[in-house]
What we know:
This protein has about 270 residues and is an alpha/beta fold. It is built from ten helices and eight strands.
Amino acid sequence: MKSLISIIIRTKNEAVPLQLLLESLETQQNAPELEAIIVDNLSTDDTLEVAKRCNLVKKVVEIKDFNYGRALNLGVAAAKGDYILSLSAHALPASDLFLAGLLTCLTSSQAVAVSAKEIPFANAPIWEKIRLTKIWQSTHRPFSNVAALYLGSYLRDHLFLELPYSEDSAWAAAARLDEKNVTYCDGAQIFHSHLESAQEIKSRFQKIYLAERQLRTCPKSNLGRVTLGFLKDTIRDTPYLKNYSRNLEGALVNFWNLLRFNYWKRQAQFRG
Length: 272
C-alpha cells in the first residue's frame, strides 16, 4: 500500500500564495499520495475558496484563538498520513522533487523529523536574505515548521506546545532529549521570506520573545540588554551587505534598512 503524506497548511488571508503553493504540490514528482489540510484563522479574502477548488485539500479546519502550536495540533488531529508535513502558506517548493527529497532524507537518516532548507524570494528585503544566509552557514541551524516533515506515528504521540511562536524549536529540543534524530535536508529547498511592515516585524518578534520567556531560554529584557543586542546584530550583519549591494549607494540603502529592522526587532523585545 502506497504511503500518504498529510500536509498541514496554516492560513490567514493568503489566497494568492496558497494558490501557487497548491499548484506546486499538485505537480510534485516521485512523491507518495498527498492530502492537504488547511487550518484557517478566520480569513476574509478568497483563501477558503482557493482551498475548496483544489482536489488535494481534504479538510478545512477553522481556528479562532490562534497560536502556531495549537493550529498544528488541530491539523495533526485531522491528518491520516504516515508522514505529516508542516508547510507555510506563503512558502513555495523550489523544485518538483521537493517532497521526494524531503521524504528520502527523513527515511534514510532514520529521523523523526526533517526540516527543509529555506531560501529567500527574489524580492525579499535585505534582512531576510541575511537571516537565511546566516542560518545555512551555521552549524546550529534552527529547526523550522516553515517546511518540516514528521514521522506521523511519533508526532501524534508528541504534539506541539501551544506557544505564541517557536513551537518548532521547542518540539525539536524535546525530541532530541528523547534521543531521537531531528535533522535538516539541504537538498530539499523551499522559497520563504517575509515582506513585513514595521508593525508586523514588531509583532512577530514580540511573539518570539514571549515564547522564549515561557520556555525560559532568554532572560527578561531591559534597556541595556536591548541596546547591546541591537549593536551586536548590526555588527554581525553588516559584513553580509557586500553580497547584496551592487554599488556604494545600494550598500548605504541596505545598511539603513538593516538598522531599521534591527531597531524594530529589539524594540519589540523591550516592549514584550
